[in-house]
Amino acid sequence: MKTDERVNSDVKVAKSIGYTIFWFGIFIVLLYRWFVLNQTLIDTLDFFLVWFIASLVHFFALASKGIPITYPVSMSKREQVYFLILVPLLTGVLSAISVFFRVGVDIKRISGGFTVSFLGMLVLFFLYKFILYFWERRNT
């Protein structure tokens, strides 16, 4: 059986669809177990680690190939800066709301959830931009 570029392209599309379903499926299972079944992170550590490691590998693979973080949407430099600030801010707010619904009014835990989520996402985004900057510098 001969292989050509069309077969390779179709295989890549099929793997991409499978990975996407797998990634979102594990994320939905995690959300269900955390918020409906009220399990802790330690109870779901196996699912969480698989999902988290797959996310990081995907994230850094895109950065190392020089693909912008906002792909497939093209954005100007200014819009990318807004994206780099607003997405971590939204992540922090959603995390704070989640903590509020889990533990009630505990300002220390709510602000901790916001801070960890916001700073974690911000560091990942800046790391992505750092890798992308060096990729562009090396390939131009």
In total, how many domains does the architecture comprise?
Answer: 2
Count of helical stretches: 4
Main beta sheet: none
Strand portion, in percent? Answer: under 5%
Rg measurement, Å: 18 Å
Distance between the termini: 39 Å
How are helices and strands ordered from N to C? Answer: HHHH
**Helix share of residues?**
over 70%
Counting helices, strands and paired strands, the structural category is: mainly alpha
The dominant shape is flat
What does the secondary structure layout of this molecule look like, with pairings?
Layout: H1 5-36, H2 45-64, H3 77-103, H4 107-139
Helix pairs in contact: 1-2, 2-4, 3-4
Fill in the keyword field for this structure.
mainly alpha; 140 residues; 2 domains
